[in-house]
């Protein structure tokens, strides 16, 4: 496909909870001068696993496989790639506990179980994948979904990454390898995910010039606070901080612990000792957490929670939820406080990203900290989709979408790239400058 038609480029965001692909395809029967941009987006769960027959699984299938073989699967790998140190569980396959394991090593390689083919039954079932390979498996899954939707091949990609990865050669190379070497893209551009989020609200255009943008990302498993400024089309990073182990899953876990204690008092059973019951309880608590973002009270009800048919039911209010997570909410706000350093007036725009940013208490804490100012909002842009939505805007060809609004955008720290944008976007002459 020629580079200057709709559908030639896609945006990819790999999250710890969900991974998404988005872009602009043609709305008519085929590409051409009269084609209208048609936004598409597909998301999958950020899980990868290997089945007993050696088949590699991704998305929901991998998560379902993890229920029966938890040590044969991995999720939340992006924070491991960001940390670049050992953070995985499991033991090596040689340990004779009847199953192989998942393990992450300091050199960012992960082992997944592989069916024995002879010889020592425990040593033969060890197989390793790099985290770039794991990322590539998810990217390949997403690429196939988008190509099936478009009916054509996608050759180019904008891949978002946490700030620490997007400005280092090592981080960019890992994601470029995932997208090019494992998923088959020909050209890849790695972009700071927070710049992409700001683009979703139009801050990459002239309206964002010389404004300091705070992007607060409260995701499912990690949280970030980043400040940067657009000056004459250049995105300049001011400061960034990350908590790799704070997110929506932690808010859910406090509800699980609270209700597990309540179940123990009511029924004399420790639900924590029953894996199946805990799985049902976690699902119910996640649903309750989401409901409390829209209403003041919800009912947590689980039929046949335990093997003896126990039916559990308990009310949960938004006030209960906020009290249970009081320390975590303030820990999240601490990220913002650390990057802002009390200079509230310095921040011109506030962008919130991630599903947990929907939580009313989080919104109130931010509003109070910024003296009543509210985060940006834009019709059609949801917090959990802002990164991939903005990246899709950066990836769409200028030649066919709003050429009058096009301008150069240079990411100052991003001096090394595997992608020459002059081959991709018309009018770009430097590979560090691209049209958006």
Automatic annotation (TrEMBL):
GO biological process: endoplasmic reticulum unfolded protein response
Segments traversing the membrane: none
SUPFAM superfamilies the record matches: Actin-like ATPase domain
The entry's keywords: ATP-binding, Nucleotide-binding
InterPro entries, per the entry: ATPase_NBD, Hsp_70_fam
Gene Ontology annotations for the cellular component aspect, listed alphabetically: endoplasmic reticulum chaperone complex
GO molecular function terms attached to this record: ATP binding; ATP-dependent protein folding chaperone
Protein name: Uncharacterized protein
Organism: Oryza brachyantha
């Amino acid at each position: 496909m020629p580079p200057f038609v709709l559908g030639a480029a896609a945006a990819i965001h790999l999250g710890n909870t969900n991974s998404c692909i988005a872009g602009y395809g043609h709305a008519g029967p085929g590409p051409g001068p009269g084609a209208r941009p048609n936004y598409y987006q597909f998301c999958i769960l950020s899980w990868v696993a290997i089945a007993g027959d050696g088949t590699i699984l991704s998305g929901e299938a991998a998560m379902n496989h993890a229920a029966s073989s938890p040590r044969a699967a991995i999720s939340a790998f992006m924070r491991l790639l960001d940390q670049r140190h050992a953070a995985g569980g499991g033991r090596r396959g040689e340990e004779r506990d009847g199953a192989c394991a998942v393990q992450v090593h300091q050199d960012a390689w992960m082992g997944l179980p592989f069916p024995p083919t002879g010889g020592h039954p425990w040593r033969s079932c060890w197989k390793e994948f790099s985290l770039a390979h794991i990322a590539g498996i998810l990217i390949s899954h997403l690429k196939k979904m988008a190509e099936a939707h478009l009916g054509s091949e996608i050759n180019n990609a904008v891949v978002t990454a946490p700030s620490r990865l997007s400005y280092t050669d090592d981080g960019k190379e890992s994601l470029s390898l995932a997208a090019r070497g494992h998923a088959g893209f020909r050209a890849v551009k790695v972009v700071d995910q927070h710049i992409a989020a700001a683009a979703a609200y139009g801050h990459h255009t002239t309206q964002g010039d010389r404004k300091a943008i705070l992007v607060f990302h409260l995701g499912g498993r990690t949280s970030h606070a980043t400040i940067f400024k657009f000056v004459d089309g250049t995105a300049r990073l001011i400061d960034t901080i990350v908590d790799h182990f704070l997110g929506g899953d932690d808010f859910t876990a406090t509800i699980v612990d609270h209700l597990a204690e309540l179940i123990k008092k009511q029924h004399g059973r420790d639900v924590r000792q029953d894996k199946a019951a805990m799985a049902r309880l976690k699902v119910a608590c996640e649903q309750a957490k989401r409901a409390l973002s829209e209403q003041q009270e919800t009912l947590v009800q689980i039929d046949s929670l335990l093997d003896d048919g126990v039916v559990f039911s308990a009310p949960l209010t938004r006030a209960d939820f906020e009290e249970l997570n009081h320390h975590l909410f303030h820990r999240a706000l601490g990220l913002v406080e650390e990057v802002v350093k009390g200079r509230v007036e310095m921040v011109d725009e506030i962008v919130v990203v991630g599903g947990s940013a929907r939580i009313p208490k989080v919104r109130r804490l931010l509003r109070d900290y910024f003296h009543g100012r509210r985060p940006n909002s834009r019709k059609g842009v949801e917090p959990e989709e802002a990164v991939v939505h903005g990246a899709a805007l950066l990836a769409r060809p200028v030649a066919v979408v709003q050429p009058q609004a096009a301008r150069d955008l240079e990411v100052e720290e991003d001096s090394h790239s595997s992608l020459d944008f002059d081959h991709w976007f018309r009018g770009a002459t430097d590979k560090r400058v691209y049209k958006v």
